Amino acid sequence: MRGDEGGAGAALVALLRLRRFETAVARRRLAERVGAAAAAEARRDAALEALQAEAAIAAASEDGAAHHAAWLPRGLAGRDRAAAALRLEEERLEGARADLAAARRAERAVEVLAQERAAAARRRAARRAQERLDEMAAAAAARRIAAPRT
Questions:
Q1: Coiled coil located at which positions (predicted)?
Q2: Nearest one of 79, 93, 82, 78 to 41, comparing CA atoms
Q3: How far is CA 81 from CA 13, 59, 87, 89, in A?
Q4: pLDDT, tens only, 57-103
């Protein structure tokens, strides 16, 4: 089993590298989703501002009500599309946050496993060293007992 530890250690190092890469990818995707959500929010805000601006223009002109009535369905549809796009981006953002959290948990689990294995290896090495010391002490004691006294 000891000969297998080197391979298992290398596999654990490779797995940790993979988990760190996955965490980095998840961070990048989260950053992309944050940007996309901010852009969607800006589009929604622009659609709302356009509705308010058109209403103000309609109120200021004599024939504005007719123009506003013709434009309003298109303005409302634009606002609704922008709001729906924002909701979708917010859902995607939450998904990216969850993916990053899962990637971090997976990375941390491998780190903990690596730490536990390293601690176990240190304990085994300490036990082997103590066994060698005990053997040397026993051999020295046996030599003292077997040696003729002068």
A1: 79-123
A2: 82
A3: 48, 25, 10, 12
A4: 888 888 888 888 899 999 999 999 999 999 999 999 999 999 999 99
What's the token pair of residue 25? 């990818």
Token readout for 40 is 């969607």
Say how far apart CA 28 and CA 115 lie, in whole Å.
27
Q: How many CB atoms lie within 10 A of CB 96?
A: 21
Rounded Cα–Cα distance for residues 33 and 31 (Å): 5
What is the residue range of 54's domain? Answer: 2-121
Q: Is residue 48 situated within a structural domain?
A: yes
Render pLDDT for 117-131 as a digit per residue (tens, 0 to 9): 999 999 999 999 999
* Residue whose structure tokens are 């390293």: 118
What is the full DSSP assignment across the chain? Answer: -HHHHHHHHHHHHHHHHHHHHHHHHHHHHHHHHHHHHHHHHHHHHHHHHHHHHHHHHHHHSTTHHHHHHHHHHHHHHHHHHHHHHHHHHHHHHHHHHHHHHHHHHHHHHHHHHHHHHHHHHHHHHHHHHHHHHHHHHHHHHHHHHHSPP-
Residue 39 lies in a domain: yes
